[in-house]
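Now for a concrete sample entry.
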Amino acid sequence: TTEIYTLSLHDALPILGLLQLAVAIYAIVMILQSSAETGAKVLWVLLVLIVPLIGLIIWALMGPGSPLKR
C-alpha cells in the first residue's frame, strides 16, 4: 500500500516557531545596525520581543533597518 503523509498544523508549529525566531533575530540585528537613536532602537527591540508577530509586521512596514523601507 502507498501511504501519503500529510503535514498537520500540530506538526508545523515547531517549524513556524523556528521561522518566527529566525525572523525576530534578523529584525533585531537590523534594528541594532540602523542609524536610529538608541532610545528608538530599544523601543523597537522591545516591541519585536514582547509582541513578536505584530511587532515584526510593524517593524517590517515602518521600523529602522527594515528591508521593505529601502
About this structure: The CA atoms of residues 24 and 54 lie 11 Å apart.
